[in-house]
Amino acid sequence: MAQKRGDSSQSQDLSTFLSSHSPSWQPYLETVALRFNKEYRREAFEVPDEVQAMPVYQEWSAGLLTSRLTSPFWEIAKPKKHQKCLDLGCGVSFLIYPWSEWESFFYGQDISVVARDLLNARGSQLNSKLFKGVQLAPAHELKYEPAQFDLIFATGFSCYYPIAYWQDVLTAVRRVLKPDGFFVFDALNPDAELAENWAILETYLGAEVFLESAAAWKKTIQSAGAQIVKQQPGELFQLYKVRF
Asked: Mind listing the pLDDT tens digit of every residue in the chain (244 residues)?
């Protein structure tokens, strides 16, 4: 399928942004951004027949896989009224999760220009009081005031990067999180029954998946000066609630 002029412009803008801000992580960031931009635009993915025959692909193409992969961060750190919450890799979460019910202030950040534009166009219409906008930036570059947020969430994307990248994310998060605040994120469980086949699928959808052990994640968290407060297993992802 030919790329539209607007799509090409967005990709070029993203590439320029990342090369000037995140040269060391640029290849990974570009790959992930392009993979999700394509999904948000509902463009077709070219997947070989043998992968299409896999049950995980059939669930994904039917829209049934999302519920199995979603990490319910609110179950271990429910946003409270008037708390300032930052959702990293937010996608279109403000349109999906009950932020209005929680009455907490939503700040979003994503590397998908499609998600950023969509959420900025519709978020304020949904709730102009709570919606504080979405920034186009990677998770390790947080241009906010120190100790600005009560809660920071980051789900669904850590597995697309080397674990060393998460060290940079944790450092950035620590600066903008309040001393009594929590950081909630998920990590892929490589021992999950679904993990290997899902990783194969994601590779053909355009983004490599890194299968890191739970021990490696705990070591990374501890080396960043964070303490695991709570964990919650999921079908594919393990949720971590940490405090610095």
From this structure: 333 334 444 555 566 666 566 678 999 999 999 999 999 999 999 999 999 999 999 999 999 999 899 999 999 999 999 999 999 999 999 999 999 999 999 999 999 999 999 999 999 999 999 999 999 999 999 999 999 999 999 999 999 999 999 999 999 999 999 999 999 999 999 999 999 999 999 999 999 999 999 999 999 999 999 999 999 999 999 999 999 9
CA dist., res. 32 & res. 160, Å (int): 7
Quote the domain boundaries for residue 79.
Answer: 73-189+209-243
Within a domain: 46: no
User: How far is CA 168 from each of CA 7, 106, 211, rounded to the nearest angstrom?
Assistant: 29, 23, 19
**Domains: count for the chain:** 1
Q: Cα separation of 129 and 126, whole Å?
A: 9
Q: Quick one: which of 123, 116, 207, 97 has its CA closest to 158?
A: 207
CATH number at residue 230: 3.40.50.150
Token pair 């950081």 is at which residue? 183
Q: Is residue 158 in a domain?
A: yes
Burial of 47 (0-12, 13-18, 19+ CB in 10 A): middle
Name 105's bridge partners: 84
Considering the domain boundaries, does residue 54 fall inside one? no
Q: Give the burial class of 66: count Cβ atoms within 10 A of its Cβ; 0-12 exposed, 13-18 middle, 19 or more buried.
A: exposed
SS3 of 13-69: HHHHHHHHHCCCCHHHHHHHHHHHHHHHCCCCCCCCHHHHCCHHHHHHHCCCCHHHH
Is 84 inside a domain boundary? yes
